[in-house]
Write a structure and sequence with these properties.
The complex is a heterodimer of chains A (306) and B (304).
Chain A (H helix, E strand, L loop, with lengths): L6 E3 L5 E3 L7 H28 L16 H7 L2 H32 L6 H9 L6 H23 L15 H25 L4 H9 L4 H29 L3 H6 L11 H10 L3 H26 L8
Antiparallel strand pairs in A: 1-2
Helix pairs in contact in A: 2-11, 3-6, 3-8, 5-6, 6-8, 8-11, 10-11
Chain B lengths: L1 H8 L27 H25 L3 H5 L13 H9 L2 H32 L4 H11 L6 H14 L5 H25 L4 H8 L4 H12 L1 H16 L3 H6 L8 H4 L2 H4 L5 H21 L1 H12 L3
Classes of the chains: A mainly alpha (306), B mainly alpha (304).
Chain lengths: 306, 304
């Protein structure tokens, strides 16, 4: 039987076998402020909120325990269920659109093209612009410019603003959300594509493989990990959709594009604090599922939190 | 959690290469042979999806009211009407909202850099101790708690503490940056050999001095990455300030744009002048420092 050797690290990270060193007290002081603000501003509110989700608290005044009544109500509330349906559907559609476009752009930008640097600079611009501000710009384009263009060319379906159409408004949200998140995915794909050695493509080309075949048999398998990570991170971001929807439709028309975040925030002004905390707890479970997928996807490929 | 554990245990995690500042990717593009013009042209057309909304913003912001109302967003502005900016400046109280946005972003960046680098240093150098390992996973737990999940109690808490104002917004921006930043820093710190610290210590430096004089400078490239992410997340945020800050007079630049949705709904030229003033700072800074920004963002995003 082997004897486990305890390795202790010196203060500067040097390993001294067989001796368990003391931790310098100052390291606790380095860590403490971060733990404190995190506990006070994230964990504590989370626990308090979870607690109230089992009560009939309206945001002020007295309250009493109601058990899982709020949770039952959440699962049978058509407006909340519609918000989940919209949010998850929107997230899935947007992630596909954004990943396909980002990957296509990355393939183009890493190819034999002119003005690669300038083009890349342009494509990354959306990343530095505030989502709500650019969404106001798009709101104008969708509700004024697009209908007037459609009218002048006589294209009936777009003569009315798509933002006012309950069955089309979501497409505008997909477009703007993709517009804003494509650069992040694009940078990751560019970095991924640059790790693929040229020789692979050259050898495949010599063997007579078509460009599509080279993409399918070389590029795609080698960047599959990036696709998975980008997709999971994308879904995670889109699930929290709020800013862009506020600017484009404010959840409308009616409640056609209300996201889960919007329903939760309505608990602040709407007087159903405890009820929306139950909703938030359900949303938390959804986030955990996606985050676990993220951890699964990042296994053995280093770590990423976003 | 196994992946995280493994990455933290190894001296050089899979993700991070020590940054020497000199390294260059082997190649940026496949430049052998003649340029592929069809692809170049296709990308230029695709770039219009970015350029056109920005062009419309600039064009609209320079139109007078009747030009703006005629509905053709693409028509160039003539005669140019710079008066819109004066009006937008006044309506949004631009110097105030800009100043608040800048202050919130500055506090967020400074707080994120200092708090998470200190914490990451403590964690990386004491990884053999359970309490530091657990603290790390505890901080990572933030990834399960996006703002909407904890928003309602946080709104109550900040009101209770009297920080339902830009101070509270900056604090929340910091805490939502922490887990990502601590992760980046601690992975990077594991890749820095301890010899430099050891020799400084032999010369009598305290841990505090070692951190500020040796570790902080070494963290340079990571600071840029963490700082850029923290700045953009804070500067561009709408969700948190709009919900946390109670007094509309203390709102940040993205939030005050909502006045054009109600009161001045049809003055598109003035609204767009305001949008342009809200967007321009980051776009201009980006265009002048893009090599830096792109490297920083790629490094933060890809730890491969």
């Amino acid at each position: 039987m082997s004897v486990p050797v305890r390795l202790a690290r010196g203060a500067a990270g040097v390993i001294h076998p067989g001796r368990r060193r003391r931790v310098e007290p100052i390291f606790y002081w380095f860590l403490l402020p971060t733990l404190l603000v995190f506990t006070a501003l994230v964990l504590l509110p989370a626990v308090v909120g979870l607690f109230y989700s089992f009560t009939d608290y309206v945001g002020f005044g007295t309250w009493s325990f109601t058990g899982i009544t709020n949770y039952r109500a959440v699962f049978s509330d058509p407006s909340v269920l519609a918000a989940y349906e919209f949010t998850i559907g929107f997230a899935l559609v947007t992630v596909v659109v954004a990943q396909v476009v980002a990957l296509a752009l990355a393939l183009g930008l890493t190819g034999r093209i002119r003005y690669a640097t300038a083009l890349r600079s342009i494509f990354v611009i959306p990343m530095v612009i505030s989502g709500i501000v650019i969404a106001y710009v798009f709101e104008y384009l969708f509700s004024n410019t697009l209908p007037s263009l459609a009218t002048s060319v006589g294209f009936g379906p777009l003569e009315q603003s798509i933002l006012g159409n309950p069955s089309l408004a979501w497409t505008a949200i997909v477009i703007v959300s993709a517009w804003q998140t494509i650069p992040g995915a694009l940078l990751i794909y560019i970095a991924g594509l640059l790790t693929i050695p040229d020789e692979l493509y050259e050898a495949a080309a010599l063997d007579g493989a078509s460009p599509w075949r080279r993409f399918r048999s070389i590029t795609l398998p080698l960047i599959a990990g990036f696709v998975v990570i980008n997709s999971v991170l994308g879904v995670k971001g889109y699930l929290n959709a709020y800013d862009i929807i506020v600017a484009l439709t404010y959840g409308g028309p009616g409640t056609a594009t209300r996201s889960v975040a919007m329903t939760i925030f309505s608990g602040y002004t709407g007087g159903d604090y405890a009820y929306q905390m139950a909703n938030a707890a359900v949303f938390f479970v959804l986030t955990v599922v996606v985050s676990l997928l993220q951890l699964l996807a990042t296994r053995g490929r280093g770590l990423r939190l976003r | 959690m196994n992946a995280i554990d493994a990455a933290m245990r190894s001296r050089r995690p899979a993700g991070v290469r020590p940054h020497t500042g000199r390294e260059r990717p082997v190649r940026r593009t496949r430049r052998i042979g003649a340029p592929n013009w069809p692809v170049t042209v296709a990308l230029m057309v695709a770039a219009l999806t970015v350029v056109v909304p920005l062009y419309v913003t600039v064009a609209m912001s320079l139109k007078n009211s009747s030009q703006a109302a005629d509905g053709n967003a693409f028509a160039p502005p003539w005669p140019i009407s710079p008066h819109n900016f004066v009006e937008a400046w006044r309506l949004t109280r631009f110097p105030v909202s800009f100043g608040i946005s800048l202050a919130v972003a500055a506090v967020t960046v400074a707080g994120t850099l200092v708090l998470s680098s200190l914490a990451a240093y403590a964690i990386a150098r004491n990884w053999d101790r359970r309490i530091f390992r657990w603290s790390f996973f505890y901080l990572l737990g933030a990834m399960f708690l996006p703002f909407p999940v904890v928003a309602l109690p946080q709104i109550k808490l900040t009101a209770l503490l009297g920080i339902d104002n830009p101070v509270g917004v900056a604090l929340l921006h910091i805490v939502f940056q922490l887990s990502f930043s601590v992760l980046l820093y601690s992975a990077f710190l594991r890749s820095i050999p301890g010899t430099l610290e050891e020799s400084a210590r032999i010369d009598g430096a305290t841990t505090w001095q070692v951190f500020w004089r040796i570790i902080m400078p070494l963290l340079g490239p990571m600071n840029a990455t963490v700082g850029i992410f923290a700045f953009l997340a804070s500067w561009n945020d709408y969700m948190m300030p709009s919900l946390i800050t109670a007094d509309p007079a203390q709102q940040t630049l993205p939030v005050v744009q909502n006045i054009f949705q109600s009161q001045f709904g049809t003055n598109y030229n003035i609204a767009f002048a305001s949008y342009l003033m809200a967007m321009a700072p980051t776009v201009v800074v980006y265009l002048f420092s893009q090599r830096w920004v792109i490297r920083g963002m790629t490094q933060g995003a890809v730890k491969q």
